[in-house]
């Protein structure tokens, strides 16, 4: 049934029609044959009965006078009947009177038991008993036995004819059905084809054509109608999308303008009030100072509110960008504590800060972390009088990640469960009267929570009315850059595995034969190489990626993945294609080896000196290449120079892109460390200039910048730089690793000799 | 006495900034738009320029780029002032060649410390 279910509709229909017609034909023919055979049997019985009848008449005289010879003579006349196997005449007393047997019958079979007049069939024969009467007196009984050859031959003939008819009619049915099924399958197949096209071309303007008014026609009408609706909806959606995008653009520019328009007058209010205060102090007229202070404070408050609303709008519009950097947690906390102190003191509260000695550093947006802490602490101060506010900082391992928890508790008025429920909704403070009494927009918590979430964490709260509230901010210690998870690995984000340092002068030996691996290891280790081995192609490729050897020796005949396949894979990988591959094999096909990109070819058994000699070509020059530092900040250059020189790299410096181009022309560096923001010629311009010269294109470039590298920037640098390091967020080790890695690769793809 | 060029189109801000700077002993000259700013920077040779970024005629970004690329004015330090709160303004200003950046509303002590730092660095060179 599975087989049938998966057939195409065309085949299904053809098969169904053929099967149906064949069954009908078979039934009709069978009925005909059965009926014919029945009537033929009847005529056989009638024939044999009349034969017996006539024998009876002929033999009545002989029976009456008991002349046995005459009886036998009469039976002999049955020779004319080829189907009669035997015949007997019984006398009235049941004794055998005369017998006949067809010539081919051997021996003398026993005469059948005398039975009542009539006939019966057994498997092979038809038996007929017929009484011989004269003037109502029973003289004896005739028995005739006939074979059924006639019926059998008739049956055989019929079956042959039937087979013929079935064959011819099946053929005809196939021809007819394969044409006629199109009436049904045609529209369905057409529909299916249209559906596939719509799906593949994503074109909802395609329509199916209808050529009948039956259910299939209705189906096609329905399908077309559906396409029409989708098309209409797409149009509407596109219009709506355009409108929404336009609205979003308008909103963004409105935000930018608003921030400017609102801040400019605030600038004047704050500035002039400060100036008046300065004037008053200078002239000794102290009377207006308290009022001026109020104007200034109100202005600052208004500015804070404006900033809150703008922050929230930016978050909602998805325009808020975070700037992640590494910072000492304790320093950030001290900053906030100092700033919040006047607010805490205002309501006669006491602030207790509690954290262990070694809080360490975290990576997040420092400004936003400060803003969150400030906000929560200022809330706590606002809603607490003559109480204690506690800031408790701890770290915790959870779900394989390290979290930093900031717990801010107060002994203030607290909140009811209903108030808690509305807490993080924009523009809703716990109570309208709260706003009047305590001021504020009620946006601070919303913004703080959004910021926490943007940094991968959250804020939770516990509170009891009259007892106080506890807000807990949890942030990952190492914040993931936005979009970091989704981003596909590209030239700028290297995986950890790739960052593993290539040990100096490593040779990778790929051979399935242990003795060959051992030999190569011995010979090459003696020559001062660091040898790693792989026993099959897959492992070889993995190790090549991981180790970045200076060269690979590769056996050709290996099970599973042979050397040709490994060579092809190595040359197809942009990271590995620069590694020279030496084929070591018993197979004599240098041509293929070189055409696939092999650097050298050695035939087994390998000559030790030859192997060592060839590989010596690929040894990395011990003198490291120069690193060119391009940065306009002299102190940054100085710092990096020190780190790099400590690692043994000669360093050249340039203060901008233009100078750097001269340096590159003087001496081709092995690596360029590039700042992006510089006067005269910035990093972007420099990279594009560098790439104009063919011979400079292969110089690896690592960007070290304090700029917040946007997606757009990455795109501009795409393919031109090896790695981007953010100033301040990378450790010295990162820098050294990146340099070593980039230099290593540059040299590996540029062997001496 | 250091001479500071204030390029600012908003009258109040200009007035306020100039008076407060004068009060602290700086000589202040003023320009109302980018083009005038370039002209005055060239003729007056100030020690420092405070450049608003949203200016008529030639905006602050462009004026900065032109000043920084001209031989006579390239060495004059420029502090960008913007009222834009959008992220990236600082980077944009630095990329245009500004030496420092401050956001409006101006907090005078903060701005003064930046001015002092730049002038000191310039004088020591």
Helical content class of chain A = 40-55%
Order of strands in the sheet with most strands of chain A: 2-1-5-4-3
Give the quaternary arrangement of the chains: heterodimer
Biggest sheet architecture of chain B: 5 strands, parallel
Number of helices of chain A: 23
What's the number of extended β-strand segments of chain B? 5
Q: Label the overall shape of chain B.
A: globular
Return the average pLDDT of chain A rounded to an integer. Answer: 81
| Residue share in helix of chain B | 40-55%
Strand content of chain B: 15-25%
Average pLDDT across residues of chain B? 87
- Largest sheet report of chain A: 5 strands, antiparallel
Radius of gyration of chain B: 13 Å
> Low-confidence stretches of chain A at least 5 residues in length (pLDDT < 50)?
483-502, 745-753
Strands in their spatial order, largest beta sheet of chain B: 2-1-3-4-5
Structural class of chain A: alpha/beta
